Amino acid sequence: MEGPFSNSLLKAGEPGNTVPMEWERRVDLSVILEEKEGALAHLLRTARQAGVDPTGICGFLWGSYPLVHVLVGDPEKREIFESAGFDVRAESEVLVLRGEGQMELLSRASKLLTDSGIRLDICYLTADGGVAIGVDDFHRAQAVMDLWSQI
Known about the structure:
The chain is α+β, with helices and mostly antiparallel strands. The chain contains four helices and seven strands. It has helices spanning 39-49, 77-83, 102-115, 138-148; strands spanning 6-11, 18-32, 56-62, 65-72, 87-99, 120-125, 131-135. Strands 1, 2, 3, 4, 5, 6 and 7 form a seven-stranded antiparallel beta sheet that branches. The longest helix is centred in the C-terminal third of the chain and has 14 residues, at 102-115. The model is unreliable at 1-15 (pLDDT under 50).
């Protein structure tokens, strides 16, 4: 799953209105944390000790449960968290976009994806300056990204 970026050009709106952009496929793990002090610190310590360097993370309450999305390079990392006792509820492929101006990039990408009939499920900023976007149909989103790279 990890590897070099695809060279792409995101073009939206007015002719000549382009935003240089690169993208790659990553894996988002949805992890339910225990409702106890230090649970997030324990998750991050577990990752660090196993040599996993999450490049993005976001969290919120899902009902009354603390839910954390952890951005990793490949699905094999799921086993590291599960073997440490974490409740990994889901694993999803996400697009990670990089380019100038995260908010402009997110704005344009979300418009183009939704205009293509693709629903955005989650988005968050990454530690290395990217934008992670989870969608309802990754393969269709990937095809749209590939078309953009030909513009």
